[in-house]
From TrEMBL:
Name of the protein in question: Deferrochelatase
Enzyme class: oxidoreductase
Keyword Metal-binding attached: yes
Keywords for this protein: Heme, Iron, Lyase, Metal-binding, Oxidoreductase, Peroxidase, Signal
Species annotation: Nonomuraea guangzhouensis
Known role: Involved in the recovery of exogenous heme iron. Extracts iron from heme while preserving the protoporphyrin ring intact.
Family, as annotated: Belongs to the DyP-type peroxidase family.
Required co-factors: heme b
Pfam families: Dyp_perox_C (PF20628), Dyp_perox_N (PF04261)
Ranges annotated as spanning the membrane: none
Keyword Nucleotide-binding annotated: no
Dyp-type peroxidase C-terminal domain boundaries: 178-361
EC number annotated for this UniProt entry: 1.11.1.-
Cofactor comment text: Binds 1 heme b (iron(II)-protoporphyrin IX) group non-covalently per subunit.
């Protein structure tokens, strides 16, 4: 497939039709020199612009430099095409402290997330100063990109945590078939999609009137690593599984309807007089009508990080959602889910991240975070 353009009003990797594979990384900045951080952003941007075209990270490449120096590309993607690679950068709340004089530039919408009931966050795999989301159709291409950014950042940033995702759990375009998550359900049916231009303007992109100016055209990303108790889930009856989501497992239709994209009828009652879509069903609680119209652009991935030594798969959903203002979108939706979602019996949130993703690169002279620094 053709390379995805690195330039535009918005960053690639948000409404870009979700690729199949993810390598997500969170960095902590280790240098205390602002000039070094800016220099790194310029080096990273130059490398990213090359990588997304399927080129090597540096100008000498894997074998073009002098034998005495380490190659400026690690080599494992030699011969592989661009594979739809996108690299999307985000800045975490911790970057906006006294170290780099950025405290005054922290967006109000980048307010720390509240503590949600039931979450069991592990600090070592949460947060971070800077993130990069690499998505591609080939896992080797995504990993290669992140690895080379980490290599270039040596001495200025260190990897805090990183996450591989092997299968998309969302569609971000109506041209894509809806994939399935590890609970076996279609995921992404009622997602924001790139064709919903007016909704994207209202719900996804930061507007000029929102502030700060450096975020105009950007978006806020929330990441949540959600472990699934798949073994328990797999012993749950089909009827119970469908009731939990409020959709059927085969075609993904809302309860009482026939086709995947039919509109859910939240008022419909069954023969027993109870709502067809239960009051604690995931799609009722997450639906915009329950949340003052709030919507998210979900772009998550399935993960299996081996097993946990207790005979269980270490599996789940690496949830990624983009939005205009997390205080009005992710936070109220997740608060509602955390309190009453019947899915909670089978999941556990173990990592969290909040990121300000600036607008897109204008041209080759632009660099990541230019308007911020
Ligand atoms: C819908 C699965 C966590 C927000 C759905 C659907 C499924 C699903 C199967 C129905 C199909 C669709 O419209 O996409 C899961 C699983 C989760 C999870 C397995 C955890 C492991 C979350 C979280 C949020 C969220 C943490 C946000 C805080 C939504 C929204 C919808 C949705 C907004 C669309 C509801 C609608 O408008 O109909 N999810 N989800 N989900 N989910 Fe989740």
């Amino acid at each position: 497939s053709d390379p995805v353009s690195f330039y535009g009003e918005h960053q690639a990797g948000i409404v870009t039709p979700a690729q199949d594979r993810l390598h997500f990384v969170s960095f902590d900045v280790t240098t205390d020199k602002r000039a070094e951080l800016v220099e790194l952003m310029q080096e990273w941007t130059a490398a990213a612009a090359r990588l997304v075209q399927g080129k090597e990270a540096g100008t000498f490449g894997t074998v073009g430099g002098v034998p005495e120096a380490a190659p400026d590309d690690t080599g494992e993607a030699l011969g592989l095409p661009a594979s739809g690679l996108t690299l999307t950068i985000g800045f975490g709340p911790s970057l906006f402290d006294d170290r780099f004089g950025l405290a005054g530039k922290r967006p109000a919408a980048l307010a720390d997330l509240p503590k949600f009931p039931g979450e069991q966050l592990i600090p070592e795999i949460s947060g971070g100063d800077i993130c990069v989301q690499a998505c591609a159709h080939d896992p080797q291409v995504a990993v290669h990109a992140i690895r080379n950014l980490a290599r270039i950042g040596f001495g200025k940033v260190s990897v805090r945590w990183s996450q591989l995702g092997f299968g998309r759990t969302s569609s971000t375009s109506r041209a894509q078939a809806t994939p399935r998550n590890l609970m076996g359900f279609k995921d992404g049916t009622n997602n924001l999609k790139l064709e919903d231009v007016e909704l994207l303007r209202q719900q996804l992109w930061v507007g000029a009137q929102d502030g700060p100016a450096w975020m105009t055209g950007g978006s806020y990303m929330v990441t949540r690593k959600i472990r699934m108790m798949v073994e328990t889930w797999d012993r749950t009856s089909l009827g119970e599984q469908e009731a939990i989501f409020g959709r059927d497992k085969g075609v993904g239709a809302p309860m009482g309807k026939k086709a995947e994209f039919d509109t859910p009828d939240f008022a419909a009652k069954g023969g027993d007089g109870l709502p067809l879509i239960k009051n604690d069903a995931h799609v009722r609680l997450a639906h915009p009508t329950t949340n003052g119209g709030a919507r998210l652009l979900r772009r998550g991935y399935n993960f299996v990080d081996g097993s946990d030594g207790l005979g269980r798969l270490d599996a789940g959903l690496f949830f990624i959602a983009y939005q205009r203002d997390p205080r009005k979108q992710f936070v109220p939706v997740q608060m509602r889910l955390a309190k009453t979602d019947s899915l909670n019996e089978y999941i556990k949130h173990i990592s969290s991240g909040l990121w300000a993703c600036p607008p897109g690169m204008r041209d080759a002279g632009d660099y990541w975070g230019r308007a911020l620094f």
